[in-house]
Amino acid sequence: MAQVTVAYIDIGCTTLSMMACFLICILGVVSPIYRKYPSKIIVWISCLFILLGIFIYIDQTIVIIDPNSSDDNKKIKKLHKLIELLIGVTITLISNQFILFLNEVKICIYNPFQATSSSVFLFLLLLQCLLTLVMIIIPLLIVQEHYHLESDALNEFNSLASYINFGSILICTLFYIAIWIILKKNKTLQSRRLYEFKSDFVKQQFYWLFIMLAINFAFSYYNLNLQESDDFLSLKVALSLEGLFFSIFHLTQPYSYHKLLQVFFKSCQEQSYIQDIENIEDGLNTDIHNKMMPIYEKLLKTQINELVKGLVKAVFTALIMQFDHHLIELEIKRTYTFKFHLSELNESRISFNENDDIKDSIILVNTYYPNSFTTLLKQNNFNKNILEYTLELQYNYKAFEKAKESLGRSGAFFFYSQNHKLILKTVEKSEIKDFLNGRIIQYFNHLKYHKKSLIGKIYGIFKIKLMAYKTQYLVLMENSFEQMLILEHEFVIYDLKGSTVNRTSKSDESVKKDNNFKQSSHNPIILPKQISDQIKKQLMDDCKFLRDIGYMDYSLLIGICQEKPQQINNQNYRFVINEAQNTIYSFSIIDYLQTFNHFKKSEQCFKTCIRFKKKKDLSCRSPEPYCERFLNFIDSIIV
């Protein structure tokens, strides 16, 4: 009778837990903030708790139906054993969130750019599933085959899961202590606001760490003491409540309960509250913004803003030094080191008392081929005054707020200068290494002999170590849409690769893709024959150059503006005017620093073998067929 009573209590606790987790899942559906990494982790763990609740429901229902697990009903006994196993795997998955936990803390403290990429989240989930398969499922099957007894195999699995759980919590605890030490040690290198947000975030992580500790302790105790005669129902009640505690902690965040009130009781809410929530989701700066926004968002927004300002200032300072210093012809690398004051970013320093030693942050900047890039800048009418107006912090306040991650899968981070002249983009180390090892000389030679090349120009390559952040690799590029942005008229942007697989953009995306272009009224692009031939000839020369140096996956970026052609600068060779249709076109080849490496080969193999896509339709192809298909596509759309 006691077992049945505890089972009913457990079902009640599980119901509350699942309802709370379900509310978080609703937030994941309706809220933009909960739909992006790293907030997706909260929704993912809530789904695991719901799954755990379903298994506990079945398990306790079996206890109520057959409290003694009699041998007469072997089917129920086998089902009970199977559910026990599924509960164990699910709880082990939940308790082994140390993979997500470590990356969550590392990103928010160390490299905030990655925090905006959902691909990171998907990769971590895949990694977690693989580790679960290797550490739990495969050993369990081996043990089961060795003993030929289900009960022995289950006991072996329980012991193995317990050790894994204890190991995961030890890793998390040690990492947490290390983060606290590093944060305290480097507090004078950060702005006061950023330090406060980081401290709040790390404190918040302690509560999640405590929940993980409780799960590990309860489940490990349950596993190591599991016997045929004992079911440890009271521990299952505790495990059921873990999901409730986890959910309550996140649902009590100001943004969360205001958003839920908006969803369920919108008619009862004041319009000002609803507007405040919508402003937060749109990234607008309001007075209530910092009060309601989740601590994750506060930390990332502040950290990214400060990091982008520091990177832009570092690039600007290095460029000015390049203009002033005597540079050696084809000098491969030059290193600049200078002190950085956070007060220059309009952030106050940490100063808790008069005895604090306020340190200057040191920036280390490596600039590659400085003489060649400086010459390229001068050839394109850049001087120190223009660079100052383009990259100085005081002229880019609005631009810093708009700095964001690319909509593509690369996860690159973009900064557009407020006067539309330059773009600063983060890149992977491997891309820069491939470009610098032999290809860059050919790149300069191509631009030298093709003055009207449509390849988007790179004006600088930098490796920057800024304060306590991860080393960033950046390229400074021209903005090929500068003139169109100056027109202040609406224009359509198409990113074209000549492929059809995954080349359809959503309705809310500003940059359209191949399939959208084919269905639009802009297809084909009709130009005077002489201009059309010139454009095709130049695109052919550029694509063959990229093919010869081993690049693929580049895009033709086309801007189309239907306005009076008299407003455009006719001297700019990137722009083509069709006076008959009163339309302006802009052409530029972008994203061309991608070689056909083993990652791209794996992607091609996956899409052709697993997803059954035709190789000729994929954007991921080797340089030779990619170039051929790209040029054929251009020939079909420009007439």
From TrEMBL:
The chain crosses the membrane at residues 6-29, 41-65, 85-102, 122-143, 163-183, 204-222. GO terms for cellular component: plasma membrane. Residues 303-638 form the PIPK domain. Keywords: ATP-binding, Kinase, Membrane, Nucleotide-binding, Transferase, Transmembrane, Transmembrane helix. Signal peptide: none annotated. One of its GO terms (biological process) is phosphatidylinositol phosphate biosynthetic process. It comes from the Eukaryota. It holds the Pfam family PIP5K. GO terms for molecular function: 1-phosphatidylinositol-4-phosphate 5-kinase activity; ATP binding. PANTHER family: PHOSPHATIDYLINOSITOL 5-PHOSPHATE 4-KINASE, ISOFORM A (PTHR23086:SF8), PHOSPHATIDYLINOSITOL-4-PHOSPHATE 5-KINASE (PTHR23086). This is PIPK domain-containing protein. It comes from Paramecium pentaurelia.
